[in-house]
Amino acid sequence: MRGGGYNLRSRKKNKHEDNNLLDLDRISTLPNEVLVSILSLLPLKEAQATSVLSRRWQHVWRHVLASTTTLDFDAEKTLCSLADLREGARELEIRKYVDWVNSVMEQHQGPTVEQFRVCFDLDPRFSSSIDKWIQFAMKKGVQMLELDLLSYGVFPRKFFPCYTFPHELLGIQKDSTLKHLCSDIPSPNPCACIGFKSLTVLNFKSVDVDGDVLEYFLSNCPVLERLLVDDSPNLRNLSVVGPSISLKYLVIQQCSSFKSIEICDANLVSFTHVGCEINMLLRNVPLLVEFQERNCVFPILENLKHLELKFQANDAFILLQLASFIKASPYLHKLVLELYPLCKRREMRFKKPSKCSHRYLKVVEIVGYDGRASDFEIVKFLIQNAVELGKIVIDPTDPIEPHYCFPMHRIKKTVEEVVREEKARNLARQQLIEEVPSTIEFVCL
After folding, report:
1. pLDDT per position as a tens digit, 371-385
2. pTM of the full predicted structure?
3. What does the domain layout of the chain look like in residue ranges?
């Protein structure tokens, strides 16, 4: 077609040129300095991912890492998905996380690291890697150190093994009279006494530390102001003594073996303790303006006859919690327990309470019984302590299922729910038929 007609060939050519413009990588044309500035604003994992694009991007990533003083190994999305993965896939994700931290450490050439944070579900199998991470942070003069090894990033590892902070890493020895003092005796770890001189914040979550390790940090970190210890199973005693200690904020929570703390002649401003009742000595702490003590000691509920409780199944502390409620309800007649399967089945060690005989409890109903070790231990505990118990009702219905939560809507059970309940029902009969005495009526719905 001539003149002002439509030129199909020209249109195709222009469209091809437009596509070339769209495909043009304009970011890569930017100067290295600009790219470094851009990547420095990204989370660590996303910034590192750009290094696979080309050799130039590898070069840019190395420059970013060299200037980075904050190493926050946050993998929240992966962490939240762990509970839904099968064991093999779960292990793969954990090892990928460990490899990621190791690779960043190996590539980091900067002189200092101000903040070093690890947040993932890690157990003692990875102790050698975690030891190296701590040594790396020490050598870089870290100011804020956080090891958050909570199970699935949420649950305490109370019934799973914890990573143990090694005494050797600090150059201290157990049973030594100089165990938390830097003396003239050469330390097997030369950076032990200087590696944490800049440390201001220290957080341990699901890390097994004892009083010796914590007191070492208090005595040898001249600017340490904040200390948090959460879910440390073997922490028993702690002393915060002397005006030379800089600590101002202290939080101790959910440490199952913690028995006593002494705070004397210290500069502490805030102290929080969450857990069971402990022996506490506070003396000459004039700067203390905030004090919180939250424990599981309940007032006596003399008029309570009917009690309904909701528990996380597979919690190693479930018997201790249950015992606390029973002791506080001396005239309780009926107890209903709802068990929520919030984490996967894994082997655990249950904390056993002392005997707490109850003479008025007659009826127990357990909803969500699924044959877990915690389920079985609850029934055993109640049989042993409720001396007048006359009836146990087992309901395998999962309390999070819609047909249980909204009974008025008459929602039908799915095939999967029916199969799961039948399996749980059979397990309950197998486990309890011989455990329940003939004097107690046993009903399995």
Report:
1. 888 888 889 999 999
2. 0.63
3. 30-68, 70-294, 306-444
